[in-house]
Amino acid sequence: MSESRASVDHLLVGVSGSIAILNLPTYLAALRATFAREVRVIMTASAARLLSPSTVALLCEEVLLDEEPTPQRKPGHVELANWAGMFLILPASANILGQVANGLAQNLLTTTIMASPIPVIFCPNLNRTMWSKRAVQRNLRTLAEDGHLMVDPEYAPAYEVGTGEMADTLILPDPEALIRHLESMLPQIEAATEGRQRGTL
């Protein structure tokens, strides 16, 4: 008999413009299969240029983009933030980390993060040089001080687009490892949700 695993009903995934987005379909498939009942995805404009939203839409309930207003109603940032039982940024670029750490809300993703009543989980994807920058480390500390959670990247050999070579670099944990991280963080998210509900009674 297989061991029961922690899971979440509503998973909101924010996707920023990092090269790691090319592996996003694999992560979404794993999340849908073993962790989340429903998945919605918010893609930044730079993310949508790297990976077709129509491809992402095959692996989730809904893909949301920064678009001009239309007669068709789309869920807004507050509705999306309140829908989420867990809010995951995968991958999180240096740009997104910096925007959120400094309280900027320049697009649908960052506005939804600002509206989130629960901690947001960031999965940074930066090369070693960027990761070591004081500004990046300062932003990571600020996000943690603000109550957000982090899944740190791992060192492993990988192809670096910037250099065109294989190198020991920082990469996202594989899907199974990521899900284990999310399972371990779920009690913190649930505690924040319960606290929010008690506060609105």
Textual characterization of the structure:
This protein has one domain (8-200): Flavin prenyltransferase-like (Rossmann fold). Helix content is 43%, strand content 23%. The chain is built from nine helices and eight strands. The strands form two sheets. A six-stranded parallel β-sheet has the order 3-2-1-4-5-6, with helices on both faces. It is globular. The mean pLDDT is 91.
At a glance:
Helices cover 43% and strands 23% of the residues.
Helix proportion: 40-55%
Q: How big a fraction of the residues is strand?
A: 15-25%
Can you write the helix and strand succession as a string? EHEHHEHEHHEHHEEEH
**What profile does the largest beta sheet have?**
6 strands, parallel
Topology:
Blueprint: E1 8-15, H1 24-34, E2 36-43, H2 45-50, H3 53-56, E3 62-64, H4 77-83, E4 86-92, H5 94-101, H6 108-115, E5 120-124, H7 128-132, H8 134-145, E6 149-150, E7 154-160, E8 165-171, H9 175-200
Parallel strand pairs: 1-2, 1-4, 2-3, 4-5, 5-6
Antiparallel strand pairs: 7-8
Helix pairs in contact: 4-6, 5-8
